[in-house]
Please model this.
Amino acid sequence: MSKKNPSPHSESLNLGIIGNCKSAALINSDSSIDWCCLPQFDAASVFGKILDENIGGQFKIECDSSYIITQSYVHNTSILCTRFSNGQDAFEVMDYMPRYKKEDNVYYAPPEITRLLKYIKGAPKFRVIYDPRLEYAVGETKTYVKEHFIVSVVDDKNYDTLFLYSDLDKNALVSGQEINLTQDQYMCVSYNEKINLPSLEHTLFEFERTKVYWLNWCHKTPTFKHYNEEILRSAMTLKLLTFEKTGAVLAAATTSLPETIGEVRNWDYRFCWIRDASMVIKVIAKLGHTQIVKNFIRYIIDLVPDKNEKLQIMYGISGEKTLTEETLEHLDGYQGSRPVRVGNAAYTQKQNDIYGILMDVIHYQIDSYPQDDEKHEELWTIVKSIVWVVDNNWKLADKGIWEFRHEDRHFTFSKLLCWVAVDRAIKISNLIEGGKKASAKWAALRDEIHSDIMKNAWNEKKQAFTQSYHSEHLDASVLLMEYYGFIDGKDPKYVKTVKAIEKELMHDGLLYRYKNEDDFGLPSSSFTVCTFWFINSLYKIGEEEKAKAQFDKLLTYSNHLGLFSEDIDFDSKRLLGNFPQAYSHLALIDNALNFN
Model:
């Protein structure tokens, strides 16, 4: 189990993620649980220090300054180990959220966090800072020591409770008194009051079962000659961002971590964007984890019950269609970056690209699992509905992949994905009905969209495909034209586009999404996935050595655990934005697979 120090980018998001496909917690490199929502991902926070240093709430194990703290994941698991040692005295904190299969074949994944204190040597001493602030720290959370547990209660705008079980002295724990560790001990934070009281023996048993679950999950993933550790960590991170109950895939585990410190680009990402989720599913399927794919397909089928119901760009993880955006005015925000938002108003936006990305995944499902005939009937109905929507909407302007809030344009990426929708629908038709009817009828539409893009998205002056029709602005999203099979990687127009984007959007090894001002001005950080897209494009145009060198450099910007957020600051290279970001990790895997 290798030990790594926090990222050299001192202000970076030095956080680890643990979870059990019901919720997740983010743990700082100093052991502090700085973010956790219970009982599930999109619930109110119980620890939220990441959004307010003073009142957000945390759960930390603290030693004196003689101790050196190192942190790493237990090999091939999502169990996080934080080690405290001053040379003579040492102990480890093993953090995990239980997840394992019970005898009835149902996964056990309760809304709780276990902190197993493993005695190593000497006479280590520590104190606990246990400061839950329920319901996003609205109102006063009061904590009481009872006979069998510690309970925290808030009864303000909402009522909520949280329980802590431990074999440590409860009064010493709550009051922050110094505690001597002489043997293994435990603390268990539970959203629910436990019917059967925990014990150290039971905690150790759950630890081993959770460890075995992750070892088994990793064992099902192919082993790669190059970048195997990075692929595995990214794959586990994507798994941690899945909500097993419905099959939804979250964009990230957090809300309101800013793209730039002090600015207002702060959004809630604890939802399922059809685009992000579909791309995650396609990548994770390449690694052989088919159940995640099937769960997501079921999520989509359940979302679109009516043939004439249009698809939203995003939904709640339980299928909610209304995601009202509110601001939490009482919270200071991450390093003072306000506002803090819950909900996301972007759910009302029109983004035509989602149809192609979803169709791409449906094609993968039907092509890969031809035996699921019953499910394919439902999917075929959705396919025909999507083609109808695309046929009636592809010529219209929209908000685009970057969610421009105040202006609709004819974005090249949106048109590209409309082409993908029809292209994959034709391929699905050939699989299901042998191309007898639909594919012949849809071929003309596919050709029309292709011609339209080639005519209107290409800019002779720029010698590149541009962000939108008849525009001179370049955009990283057009790099995906090759990825989706619209154009060959060696096509001169694509090669020129890659070169033009490098010249205009590359800054010190990181890529701008675009340089034209949006609703909030010029972006001052790099959207991480864009640099991954560029590296992939370099590889596809034949510049493989250059691609690998840039990939290796980009990997050094991860945090100490190999995790990426949404954005990277151009100058300091610190991680910014919501964390960990599914988009970033799926693109990392895609790039790494190029080199195997």
About this structure: Residues 481 and 583 are 17 Å apart (CA to CA). The domain at 15-204 is CATH 2.70.98.50 (Beta-galactosidase; Chain A, domain 5). The chain has two domains: 15-204, 228-594.
